[in-house]
Amino acid sequence: MKYKVIYMGGIEGFEAARVELADTAEVIQVEANTDCLNAYIGVADAVIDASMKVKIDNAMVDSAPRLKVISCATTGSDHIDRESVDARGINVNTLKEDRELLQNLTPAAELSWALLMACARKLPQALKHVKSGEWVRECFPGTMLNGKQLGLIGFGRIGGWMARYGQAFGMTVVCNDPYAESIPDFVQSVSLERLMESSDFISVHVHLSDDTRDLVNEGLLCEVKEGAVLINTSRGDIISQNGLLKVLESGRLGAAGLDVIQGEPDIDQNPLVQYAREHDNLLITPHIGGFSPDAVTVVCKRAAEKVRKVLGESK
């Protein structure tokens, strides 16, 4: 009898996982919501999570007596109650373990740059303007990137790609990352305070942890350079939501581009979403940074390989 593996995520990842585990397990694709996962997790030997939409809490773990491994096709796993799974001896794997594989996966960095460019050139507003039948370019003065300063909070894989993009556009690049293993000569390491005060564009690229939660706090945001642009494609909890709203409303922050917010995916009443509905200086995308079919296929295949290994060892 084959093992049963629950998969949550896009169809490309499902196909990759199904092929990889064809001789080991039946892979069942379920919708990424709590009810659907609860309906199947009782018979699951493994979960491949490429969505991060469902919180895997203590009650869910208790209802999964056969569960041996949760393999995330993402770098983050903060949606999993680690205390509960650790107590059961359930393996939790993420892409943090796969640095070499990740190095050349660039969708998250590319989205970060796209958000930066969209804010710099007011692209959503300009597109809307033309669709309404108007043609007044003076309404949309753009910011030239050449000669401006790009500040990177976190200098891992994605921060490194962002630095290269910034250099290619003629920007001065600074970073703050006390754990950075290697910083190229064209990037200057500075304090977080100096980065916030002096950068024209700021982009956040750190993992969420107890140390980074609210890292960009209200005090730092209130010291941001006048008219700066802030990009966050990491996790919503890294930036103070109240502080961000405050500097957007005051006009001190020129614009922000977010791919992540607190409480996602239940975002309808989120204050940032409500603000974005009425204001053009906040752009929000639905956590699509890593969602490229090319990349999803690669990472879900790798997540399935880890499931195969754990299930094989459990025989």
List the helices and strands and how they pair.
Blueprint: E1 3-8, H1 11-20, E2 25-29, H2 34-40, E3 46-49, H3 58-62, E4 69-72, H4 82-88, E5 91-93, H5 99-103, H6 107-120, H7 123-131, E6 149-153, H8 157-168, E7 172-176, E8 187-189, H9 192-198, E9 201-204, H10 218-222, E10 228-232, H11 241-250, E11 253-258, H12 271-278, E12 282-284, H13 293-313
Parallel strand pairs: 1-2, 1-3, 3-4, 4-5, 6-7, 6-9, 7-8, 9-10, 10-11, 11-12
Helix pairs in contact: 1-13, 6-8
Compact overview of the structure:
This protein is of the alpha/beta class. Helices cover 38% and strands 17% of the residues.
Please explain how this structure is put together.
By secondary structure, the protein is α/β, with parallel strands linked by helices. The protein has 2 domains: 3-102 and 293-313, 3-Layer(aba) Sandwich (Rossmann fold); 106-284, Rossmann fold, CATH 3.40.50.720. Helices cover 38% and strands 17% of the residues. The chain is built from 13 helices and 12 strands. The chain has helices spanning 11-20, 34-40, 58-62, 82-88, 99-103, 107-120, 123-131, 157-168, 192-198, 218-222, 241-250, 271-278, 293-313; strands at 3-8, 25-29, 46-49, 69-72, 91-93, 149-153, 172-176, 187-189, 201-204, 228-232, 253-258, 282-284. It has a 7-stranded parallel β-sheet with strand order 8-7-6-9-10-11-12, with helices on both faces. A 5-stranded parallel β-sheet has the order 2-1-3-4-5, sandwiched between helices. Helix 1 packs parallel to helix 13 and helix 6 packs across helix 8. The longest helix has 21 residues, at 293-313. It starts with a strand and ends with a helix.
